[in-house]
Structure formats: C-alpha cells, structure tokens
Amino acid sequence: MKELTINIFRMDPAVDNAGKYKKFNVPVQEGMVVLDAVRYVQENIDPSLALRWNCKAARCGSCSAEINGRPRLMCKTRVDMLEEEITVSPIRAYPLIKDLVTDVSNNYEIERRIPAFRPKKGAAQPFLINQIDVTRSQEFRRCIECFLCQDVCHVIREHNTNYIGPRHAIKVASLDMHPMDGIDRSPMLNGDLGLGFCNITKCCQEVCPEGIKITDNAIIPEKERAVDYKYDPILRLARRLRRGSSAK
Amino acid sequence: MKTENSKVNGIQKKYETVSSDVLIIGAGGAGLRAAIEAFDNEASVVVVSKSLLGKAHTVMAEGGIAASVANVDSKDNWKVHFSDTIVEGVYIGNWRMAEIMTKEAPDRVYELERYGALFDRTPDGKIMQRAFGAHTYRRLCHVGDKTGLELIRTLEDQILHRDVNVMDEVFITKLFIKNNSVSGALGIRLRTGEIILFRTKTVILCTGGAGRLYKVTSNSWESTGDGIALAYNAGAELMDMEMIQFHPTGMVYPPGVKGLLVTEGIRGEGGILLNAKGERFMLRYSPEKKELDARDVVARAIHSEIEAGRGTEHNAVYLDISQKGAKFIHQKLPGMYSQFMDFAGVDITKQPMEVAPTVHYQMGGIRVDPETCRTNIKGLFAAGEVASGLHGANRLGGNSLADILVFGKRAGLAAAIYSSKTALSSISTEEISKEIARINSFANKKKGLNPQTIIKVIGETMSEKVGIVRDGKDLGLALTKIQALRKKAKNVGVSGSLKFNPGLLSCLEVEGMLTTAEAIIRSAIARKESRGAHTRKDFPKKDPKFKKNILSYKNGNSMKLKMVSVPSMPDRLKQLVKLEVY
Fold it and tell me: Smallest Cα–Cα separation from A146: which of A61, A89, A228?
C-alpha cells in the first residue's frame, strides 16, 4: 500500500521548552484529506496527539492548521494536491494549548464587544425584506469561524494593536448590512475595534475556505463608511447642528 | 469557582467547583435556546459543550426549519404539519409533542428573525420556504443549504450578550443523583485536564444523537450518545431506541467522505434519483410522492436498488440536479456545490452525484414530558435529538430544527421554574473521589487497550448487523458482540496526561457508546415488526400489536425493556389525521 509521510508538530507548553516535528508514515487512501492522515496517527499510533475536529465536512471550522506553511482546514485539504512530505503545524496567531490545538477563546471575548443585532425602531414584524437586500449580509454569514483569516493577518501576527481582525470585521459588516438592523457599528469598528490598522493586503480573503470576499466586500466598504462619516462636510454640519440642538 | 480537595485512599484529588441553578450539557441549537430561556427567567446558567462554542452538530443542518408560516403555500397551517408529523412517524409519535411543536414552530422562526437571523426571501419579501420529503406543503424556512449555521450563529450571538457562563471543551462523565433528584455533575476540562464539579439544581441534556456508533454516518465526531448514557445511568427511561434514521442520500466516494450528508434540499429543489441503468426508480416505489416521500421510504428504495444489482460501481445510485442549471444551483445549493467539487471533483451543475443511505438521526432517546421536557428524575430535563417522542418511527426533514427551538425553550423555562423552588443539594465526597479516580485510571496507562480498537468494532457491528434492514439473528449476534466488547472495554487506557488527550476522551466515551448500542439493539430485537425506520426482514409487516413505545431502563446492573401504549390522541386531533391502516 502506498504511504505518505507526515510531520506533525508536538508540544505541551506546560512540559516542553520547545516544540518538535514528529514524522509518521500513513497509508494513503483515495481522496484522502490531511485530517484523515492526522486522525490515522491519533487513532492508531499515538492516541494522545491533540487535535480538534468535528464535522469533517468543512462546515464547522474546527480543524484549522498550517499545512506546509499555509493556513488551511485539514478536512478540506486533499493530500494528492500537496507534495509528498506533509508538514502540519498549529495556527500561529493563537497561544498553543498542545500539539495542533490553540486557544481561540479571545474570539468570543471580541464578539461580546460587538453590539448584537437590534431591530430598527418601529419596523413592522414579521419583517418584509427583499432577497437582493439579504444577499450582501448573507455572504459574511457563511463564515464558519475557522479563524484562518485571523491567523494570516499580519496586523494580528506582528503588531500589538486593538484591531479585532478580519473574522470580526465581517461580523460587524454582517450586522451593519442587515437591512433591518438599527445600529451603525462602523464608527466603533473604525475606532475602538481598530479597523484603521488594516492596510488591505487581502491575505485574509485569500485563505478563506468559504471564499468570502472579506476585504473587498466588508473591510473596504466599512472603511469608506468611516471616511464618509468623518469627512463628509454635510454630515459634519448635520452632526454639529444636532449636537447644538441637543445642547439647548 | 473554588478549589477543593478530597482524599481517598490517601490520594489527594483536586477539583474546581462551579455552582448554578441550571446546567446545560450541549451547546447545539437546543442547548443554546434553553440557555437563553433559563437566563431570561432569572436562573443562573452554565452551558458546557464537548467541542468549541459554535461548532455543534447543528451547524451541519442544511435544509431548513419546518414551520407552517404559510408564506409560499397559503393553505398550510399547524394542523396539516401535525398530521404530516404523526402519519410519517407511523403513529407512535407523541401527539402532544407534535401538537406543541407544530403550533409553536412559527413563533420560534420569527423569534430567530428578531434575534437577527437572515432567511432567504420570497418575491414579496417574506421568509422563503422549500419543499421537503413528505411535507404536504412547501414548509422549510431556510438559508440556502446552511440553515443550521445561521441558527447556531444567531443563538451564539444572543448567548454571548447575556451573562451565561459558557464552558466549552468540557466533557461530562457523570451525573450525581440523590433521592431521585439531580444534585450535580462531574466533568473534565479538555484544554487543561482540570476536573470540575458542577453543583446544580437542574440539568438539561442537549447532547444530540449517536450517529458515531455507526461506521457510515453524516454525524459529527461529537455524536457518541453521551447524553443517552448519562441519563440511563442516572436512572432515566429511554424510549424507542431502535428508531435510527438513515438519510437516503449520503456521499459514497471518495472513501474519506463516505457518509457525509447530501441535503434533502437537492430533491426539494427538483433533484431526481436514478439507478445505474438510468431508471427513475422512485416512480416504482412511490408513484405519487416520488423522490420526496418520507426518508425511510426513499432510503429503503435506494437500498433495494443497490441490493438488486442496479447500483453504481461504488454501491450507490445517482442524484441529479444538473437540469436546473448552474445559476440556480449556485444560489440555492452553494454548500453542496463546493462539497462535491472540493471532496469528489464532481461538478453537480453538470454531472450527477453518487449517493447512498447514511445514518443521520436518532428518533428515540430519553423519555420526556411533552410540556416541560422533564424526565422521570427530578431536575433532569432533555431536549432535542437526545430526547424522544416527537418523531415516532421516522423524522421529517426540518422537524429537528423546529424541535430544538421549541423544546429547547420549553426545557429552559421549566428548569428555571423548577430551580427557583429548589435548593442545591450536597454531593458525597466519596462519590466525587470515585469518579475522579475512574477518570484518572485511563490516563498514563502505557499498556492500556487503545479505545479505537473497540470503537471500530462497534461501528462495524452496528453498520453490518443493526443497519437499514435488520433480522433477529443478526441482532442477536450484535448483542453478543456488544456484551463481549463491554468486558474488553475494561482494559482501555492511553499514554499521556488528562490534558487535551483525545485518546483519553475516547476511553471516557466508550462505555456510553456501548450502553447506547445495547439499548438500540435490545429495542430492535423487541420490535418484531417493520415500522418507519425500523425494518425487519423476518417481520416485514407492520403489526398493530406493536403500536407501542418501547422503554429501556437500568435495573441493577442490567438493562430492562418495557412496552407501553402510545398515549391516545384526543378527538379534536384525531379528526386531523387519517386512520392508520395495516
């Protein structure tokens, strides 16, 4: 039977000072994905190998890893499209827990900071919305929270800023572009949530397994809204008048 | 959280303690909806889940939520939905659960919309509905073929904006019961290996199904029947465990994705089934409903075609939607397009798909009270796939998402009310220490038996002997096998510590998997007829003697079975449903 060689990162930060790659040989099956190979190792060779997986159908976003240096879902990466020797490492933007598993819990903390959907005041219920108006927001709702876009984002990897990252930027956009939503989050996104640090290198949308146009359809429009908001002379005047009248 | 020590046999055992009014086990749709309701009714709520928050098996629900909002077919209403549910559940479903679900599903859908979910729309701007197997009208409210994902994200958002304590990647190993009421639970936090004692007034089990007992399944890694086993060991009654739904269409090729779900939405949107000879065989099996008959009917038809030698080279049949054109498919079925493109290299806008039945859902489960979802153990509730009653012998597509929202909410409310009238009870340190010692006994065990060797045999046994068509002899052999595995399972163990050790987790899951398998097999042996999803070669007909629910429960160290009558419907509902014929 044909075999492949897979190098898997091993480390328990509580015990080891440094990680190492361990080499395993795994029998090849037709249509095999990297997750199959890693699970083969976990199930048959070393049951203590830490990995996350759940649906094995690219729908849950649990099995994110760096495969030959590129952020990918293990369940969606066929071994026959890779070179003969495969190297699997944990995603680097998050603290390591063990082997291929990282601590992604800060994503939930970020989500707590983004105001949830709040219907427009006085909107008749049940809502009447045109399909054309839901399509834009629905693109971002395809996100499976694999956090590969967060992993590849150089702002997150290399700079200590308040930027929440691409996953959460599209979350904000999905709420802002909800036709019945009554909150405008773009000032917050461009302020406290640090979108200004993104210099639109588009790495995030390149790695998105769902093919969401993160930069083109969410980040750039949100940046443009901020510019409109800040510099549009008519809006500025309107704001000043509003402030003036409320001061009275 | 506070740390405590207990001493048994001179070994110090440390654990954290977390207290709450309501402990919810499972963070799928039912668990999250229950959490919202319990929290909004003033209870302190802890949610634990085996996987990360937002990854539960609910994300894989594709087709939609069945609710008679009548946006597309104006004749639809709860009465028709009720009748469809009872008839297709082959008359052993609980009438009151079906009534509650069909009446309340529309409210739950609109509530989801108020929480921010964005459904596909009709031309006049209402929530769009699609046709699904054996639903009289187009009834499934949907978001493309990713309805479950939208549902989970929407509920997740609600939870994250409430003061609910979510502890993900925690596995519960035991429920503590005192005087027939819940007193707490013990769990292990996978990320650190810490042991956590949950002191709680109520537990809501929302752990989903047990598809992973089978080799070929559409279910996530998580679906190992944990909740069934926890409830059984706590003394709760299980019901209709033999009723395992085979979804007619799972992927078959390549081998790595065998079993992966191919949504019924494809047939709902006009996909047709063909055998290897190119015949549209459903015209023979079900001339009226054709591809859109109930799942048990379509699954058996596909099985028969393959058995008769009219299958493809991979023992499958073809499902074809290409006649609808690329634009339509990309809009309505984007997930299916990429699933086949990425995993099989098949372009479904041009080529047919190969499909065969795959284990999909467990109609049976914990026996619950229809109004409150409580079990026969005080303070113990169950909702969603882990509970039983609603679906009878066969579940209609889309009824599971309605189920988790409707009964998740009801369970959350009932648990909040119950906990407001109850005090926390104590848990004996001896029991705690015993369970901690049991967990530890599997770790750092270099010479232990790899739990996967047992899990593999469970999968083969269930798939081969407790499959889509069963007979007494095979079921007997399966039971013997499972009992032998139980003895063998005493030796499981893995190297490595308690910290994020998937092998250890498997050790902890194995016993529950065996218990669940045993309940399925024993109930399947007892039901000597063919009804809904349960087909017996040796008893091919439906039999009025078995218009019963089969209970299984723990009695000492063995499993006991009992047949009980299906609660009889009041006259006002009887007139909605056509009479059962034999």
Answer: A61
Helix (H/G/I), strand (E/B), else coil: B319 = strand
Contact residues, chain A, for B151 at CB < 8 Å: none
CA dist., res. B52 & res. B61, Å (int): 17
In sequence order, what DSSP letters do the residues of B55-69 get, joined into one string?
-SGGGG--S-EE---
Q: Specify the fold of A106-247.
A: Fumarate Reductase Iron-sulfur Protein; Chain B, domain 2 (1.10.1060)
CB neighbours of B43 closer than 8 A, spacing ≥ 6? B20, B21, B22, B415, B416, B419, B420
Q: Which residues of B carry out catalysis?
A: 247, 267
The domain spans of chain B are 14-244+361-420, 249-357, 440-542
CB atoms B118 and A104 under 8 Å: no
Half-sphere exposure of A11 (CA within 13 A, CB side): 17
ipTM of the modeled complex: 0.93
**Interchain proximity A59–B335, CB inside 8 Å:** yes
Kindly report, residue by residue over B505-563, the tens digit of the pLDDT. 999 999 999 999 999 999 999 999 999 999 999 999 999 999 999 999 999 999 999 99
Q: A3-102 falls under which CATH superfamily? A: Beta-grasp domain (3.10.20.30)
> CA nearest B109: which of B78, B74, B75?
B78
Interface test with A, best of B32, B118, B215, B494 (most A CBs within 10 A): B118
The helix (run of H) or strand (run of E) holding residue A20 is strand A20-27
- Whole-number percent of chain A with pLDDT over 70: 98
Give the span between the Cα atoms of B391 and B84, in whole angstroms: 11
Chosen CATH of B249-357 out of 3.90.700.10, 3.40.50.2300, 3.40.50.790, 3.30.70.270? 3.90.700.10
Residue B569 tokens read as 């419907």
Q: What is the largest CA-CA distance in chain A?
A: 83
Express each pLDDT in B260-297 by its tens digit.
999 998 999 999 999 999 999 999 999 999 999 999 99
| Chain A partners within 8 Å of B506 (Cβ) | 47
Burial class of residue B496 (count of CB atoms within 10 Å of its CB; 0-12, 13-18, 19+): buried
How many beta carbons lie within 10 A of that of residue B161, not counting itself? 15
User: Which CATH number is associated with domain B14-244+361-420?
Assistant: 3.50.50.60
**CA dist., res. B57 & res. B211, Å (int):** 11
Residue B232 and residue B376 in contact, taking contact as beta carbons nearer than 8 Å: no
| Bridge partners (DSSP) listed for residue A178 | none
| Separation of CA B528 from chain center | 24
d(C-alpha A37, C-alpha A56), whole Å: 13
CB-based contact A111 B160, cutoff 8 Å? yes
Q: Please tell me the distance from the alpha carbon of residue B185 to that of residue B16, in angstroms, as a whole number.
A: 12
Interface residue B160 vs chain A (CB under 8 A): yes
Q: Among candidates B3, B29, B139, which has minimal Cα distance to B76?
A: B139
Contact B13, B5 (CB under 8 A): yes
Rounded CA-CA distance A92/A104 in Å is 11
Q: Which residues contact B149 (CB under 8 A, 6 or more apart)?
A: A59, A141, A142, A144, B59, B143
In this structure, the number of other CB atoms found within 10 A of the CB of residue B522 comes to 20
Kindly report the nearest CA distance between residue B446 and chain A, in angstroms: 11
Q: Which of the four pLDDT bands, split at 50, 70 and 90, describes residue B1?
A: low
Contacts 24+ apart (CB under 8 A), B419-425: B419/B21, B419/B22, B419/B43, B419/B201, B419/B202, B419/B379, B420/B21, B420/B42, B420/B43, B422/B181, B422/B201, B422/B202, B422/B379, B423/B201, B424/B19, B424/B183, B424/B199, B424/B200, B424/B201, B425/B178, B425/B179, B425/B181, B425/B183
